[in-house]
Amino acid sequence: MLLMPESLHAIRWNHLLSVYFLPLASAALVAMFVVWRLHREDLEELTTELKRTKGLAEQRERERDLAQEEVFRRLYEERELNKEKIQFQAKLAEYEKYAALAQLALGAAHEINNPLLGILSHLELELKASSDPERRTEIEQCISGAKRISATLKGLVNYARPGPLILSKLSLHRLVSDTFGFLENQPMLRGKQLENSVPTDLPHIRADANQLSQVLMNLLLNAAEATPEGGRISVSASKLTFIESVEIRVSDTGSGIPPDVLAHVFEPFFTTKRGKGTGLGLSISQAYVRSHNGDIRVDSVLKHGTTVTLTLPIRQDETDESRKEESEVVV
């Protein structure tokens, strides 16, 4: 059977496809698959490496942040320690100064007070025996000066060695009312408004009524001297949150205290009242407050007034055998 030329051409083409092109195409496909597979593995490996590198970078960044925080924390702690060290050194120097002053005060009181009592007794006898007005005036001035020396010595002794606490259960509202009643006839309080803003339901505290009354009287008299006629002097109090303490505030609308003076108000013998007072009032008040494990501070704005704040614990540590206790308030 004879084949047509077209049929021969088709047979040859199919033979070429089966013999040459199909193996080449299969090889090309295999090569492409291998290349794709290698590329995919490289891509996965690269992705994994990128993730690992990114994680390592994030970890190092976290470590850097933690290191910076640690550095800042240590710098802050070092600064706070230096601040506490400076404060401690200042307090230590203050206590050493006050301890030396206490020893001096006790020695001076012992050496001066006994002869002074003899001088006062002699002056009083001279005053009774004298009829000359000028001589009597001179003797009265001497007696006044001797009594002032005696008061200064007494203040020194009270500052240097406060007496043992006689603890009692105190109503601060009643204590302030009684103190106001005791001072209401003082000439320097005339024309000035006194306010007792202490809540009646404030918790009672355990304290020495006599010492706390002296502190209040001293603060009120200081406020009266600084407050003009028509001004206001108030005493308020409140219980502090989260701690078993009360805060007592004595405020006035007086002239205020200059900043350069405010830094020295608790120093013994420091006074701006020339010819008046001994400069021991606030020092003794501070000693009394500290003997109650309390704190006292003064805040003042010039020409606007002053506030003295006492912070006292509601309960006292009664393990000290030198401390006595009474059951009721006595002012």
Instruction: For the largest sheet, list the strands in their spatial order.
Output: 2-4-5-7-6
Q: Structural class of the secondary structure composition?
A: alpha/beta
Poorly predicted segments? 319-331
Mean pLDDT: 81
What's the CATH class label of the domain at 166-325?
Alpha Beta
Helix percent band: 55-70%
Distance between the termini: 149 Å
Record field, number of beta strands: 8
Approximate strand percentage = 5-15%
The CATH homologous superfamily name of the domain at 166-325 equals Histidine kinase-like ATPase, C-terminal domain
Q: Could you say which overall geometry the principal axes of the C-alpha atoms support?
A: rod-shaped
For the CA atoms, what is the radius of gyration? Answer: 45 Å
Query: Main sheet?
Result: 5 strands, mixed
According to CATH, the fold-level topology of the domain at 166-325 is Heat Shock Protein 90
Tell me the number of helical segments per DSSP (H or I, 4 or more residues long).
6
